Amino acid sequence: MGRAVAPGAHPTTRRCHAKTRQATSGIMRIELARLDWDSDLSELENDWRDLEQNANGSFFQSWTWIGCRVRSRFCKPFVVRATEGGVVVGLALFNRRGPPRLRTLWLHETGDPREDSVFIEHNGPLVACGRDALLRPMLEAALEQGRVMLNGVGDAVRDAACSLGLCRVLASRPAPYASLVGADAATWLSRLGRSTRYQLRRSRRRYEAEGVVTLRRAGDVEEALAFFGGLATLHQQRWTARGLPGAFAEPAFVAFHQTLIARGLPRGEVELLRVSVENAAGERVIGYLYNFIWRATIYAYQGGFDYDRATPHEKPGLTCHHFAIEAAIATQSWRYDFLAGKAQYKENLADGAALLHWMETARAYGAFAVQMYARRWLRRLKSNLWTTAEPKIEQ
Question: Please, are residues 89 and 134 in contact by the beta-carbon 8 Å criterion?
Fold first, then answer.
């Protein structure tokens, strides 16, 4: 169960919006409050950690992720807290940016592109199991402050937001995954396409012809940070060779994940993996993987692979994921999630996908609503498409 909130708790928070209604099991209260990190941080962390135990959230909704560098990243934090009978059943953290008439609240993000380069996915308010009906009133409370940005959210959050006002989906991206339920390594491999199986086996044989291929999981934070540095080097080599900056070019990205590794590794929620081939001449690194572990799901967040020394039939990325999936099966994980974005290797290794949305929502009347209606009208004018009805959702 969630954590009980005594009457008058959180005395230092400034209540901006609150609604109370009678529920079958007690009084339901949904409140938006401005936070003071000096006095409210430990209370919020305790509430969040307790609610995690009774929620089906993702790693990106955990306090390990949400609370990472939160004091420095969220300059104007607001929390929506749902309680029933004094028990916390829903939480959502926002950061507010913009002038009074154009305020924007960002769900579990800062609104600063540098800080948000960490790229949240599987996002949404954290609610207790069976309490998806809370999504709508919790988002409604946030809308009292202005426009709300909801990035990396699923269909349930999208639908709740679009039932409240004007809603625009900026992008929708599939998040492919491999289901591992009831599978062993051979069974999982047999589910893949013939060409993919051939590539995986051929690449593995090529590496094994050179020596013994091993997967090592970082044993402590120091080793994990060393793996993270090796991953960053290989990742940047690959992207800068294409003329692109790469994820690790942003200092805020590096700082966030160094802190996240130190927070999550001791809790068993973060893992750094190194796949290498060893022989008498020494060790050759094939690649690194940086994963999150949450409720029997492995989130394959980032990788760095040695393509420069790979022969034409050696597939370092595929081989590293192959070994990582076998390790996930051995630990009885249910799902290996490749996260959002299109990539051929994801399509080859996955057998399912969730759809995630990046979107904005605002009240039907207001400054942001006028802007959204104007953009819609201009797009239709340009394409000469006129309709008599305004759709709620735009792709």
Answer: yes
180 close to 325: Cβ distance less than 8 angstroms:
yes
3-class DSSP assignment, residue 146: coil
pLDDT at residue 391, rounded to an integer: 38
Contact 356, 121 (CB under 8 A): yes
Instruction: Confirm whether 338 is domain-assigned.
Output: no
Q: Tell me the average pLDDT of the chain.
A: 89
Q: Kindly list the distances between the CA atom of residue 80 and the CA atoms of 91, 96, 112, 144, in Å, as whole numbers in the listed order.
A: 6, 13, 21, 11
pLDDT interval class at 372 (50, 70, 90):
low
pLDDT above 70 covers a percentage of the chain that reads 85
Task: Tell me the DSSP string of 41-107.
Answer: HHHHHHHHHHHHTTB---GGGSHHHHTTTHHHH-SSEEEEEEEETTEEEEEEEEEEES-GGG-EEEE
Residues 128, 39 share a domain: yes
Q: How many residues does the chain have?
A: 395
Q: Is residue 160 domain-shared with residue 185, that is, in the same domain? A: no
The total of other beta-carbon atoms located within 10 Å of residue 333's CB is: 19
More confident site: 255 or 387: 255
Mean predicted confidence (pLDDT) in 96-114: 92
Q: Containing domain of residue 219, as a range?
A: 181-333
Q: Are residues 327 and 365 in the same domain?
A: no
Q: Would the pTM count as exceeding 0.85? A: yes
Q: Clarify whether residues 164 and 265 are in a common domain.
A: no
Pairwise CA distance, residues 186 & 388, whole Å = 56
Segment 351-373 shows an average pLDDT of 78
Give the chain's domain count: 2
Residue 349 lies in a domain: no
The reply to whether 166 and 277 lie within a common domain is no
* 380/385 Cα distance (integer angstroms): 5
pLDDT of residue 99: 82
Task: Identify the CATH number of the domain in which residue 238 sits.
Answer: 3.40.630.30
Angle at 145 between CA 143 and CA 147, to 5 degrees: 55
